[in-house]
Amino acid sequence: MTAMPPSSPDEPLQPQRFFAVVPAAGVGKRMGADRPKQYLVLRGRTLIEHTLERLCGFTPIERVIVALAAEDPYREGIAILNSSRVLCCEGGAERCHTVHSALNSLAGIAADSDWVLVHDVARPCVRVEDLQRLLDRLQGHPVGGLLGVPVWDTMKRTASDDQVIGTVDRQHLWRAYTPQMFRYGVLRDALSAVLARGELVTDEAAAIEAAGLKPLLVEGAQDNIKVTRPEDLALAEFYMAQQEAGQS
């Protein structure tokens, strides 16, 4: 697979179009809740509502594709899922299957050179400034990239029994966040190739890397956390309050 080269100065500039994909078919086992974590309530609304409102409120994004579990009983009453800017589709067994399904839903809508921003449904604190920074940094990039944060903690590697077997050099190590933004055709083909080999990837950048391409890491805000465990809900609420108060 080859990346799409940027337009040359002599070629007419094609208008850039942006779409978002939100995989929301997971069950969130680590939360230990009675429902998938995207339907847990945070500040009076569900996580999925907070996340979709931030994406839908970002003007450059034309449409948001939300991939839900088949026969999802919790989607009823989530008004934003019925928005004209939101298109729902059925997800799959793993995240990569779910994202692939959402990309297939964009067939005939998105051109290969358009951009797709894949964002975790459980990252409700993503900042508009970070979305704009991602678009600005990747403008003209042939492949795409992702938000991330450099690792500052000391990193340890362990054996299967949790005994430390070494300290990992943290220089050039990053925490991978979302959105992860790639050309539609490049990401679709990369994920298709991975799944055809029977492999699984935990994020879109890994599929891009497997295709021999190099995503660009764009530093974002550390409060763009992923709600994974029960204590993360309180932390997300704290960060949202700080954002509203303009304190961070």
Summarize the structure.
This protein has helices at 47-56, 95-105, 128-138, 184-196, 204-210, 230-245; strands spanning 18-24, 41-42, 45-46, 61-68, 86-90, 115-118, 144-150, 155-158, 164-168, 174-183, 216-219.
What is the alpha-carbon Rg in Å?
Answer: 18 Å
User: Tally the helices: what do you get?
Assistant: 6
The fold-level CATH name is Spore Coat Polysaccharide Biosynthesis Protein SpsA, Chain A
**Name of the CATH first level:** Alpha Beta
- CA(first)-CA(last) distance: 41 Å
Spatial arrangement of strands, main beta sheet: 5-4-1-6-10-7-11
Q: How would you spell out the order of helices and strands?
A: EEEHEEHEHEEEEHHEH
The chain-level structural class is: alpha/beta
Overall domain count: 1
Helical proportion, percent range: 25-40%
Strand content: 15-25%
Major beta-sheet overview:
7 strands, mixed
Question: What do you see in this structure?
Answer:
By secondary structure, the chain is of the alpha/beta class. It has a single domain, classed as Spore Coat Polysaccharide Biosynthesis Protein SpsA, Chain A (Alpha-Beta Complex), CATH 3.90.550.10. The chain is 27% helix and 23% strand. The protein has a seven-stranded mixed β-sheet, with helices on both faces. Strands 2-3 form a two-stranded antiparallel ribbon. Strands 8-9 form a two-stranded antiparallel ribbon. α2 packs across α4 (184-196) and α4 packs across α5 (204-210). It is globular, with a radius of gyration of 18 Å. The N and C termini lie far apart (41 Å). 33% of the residues are buried.
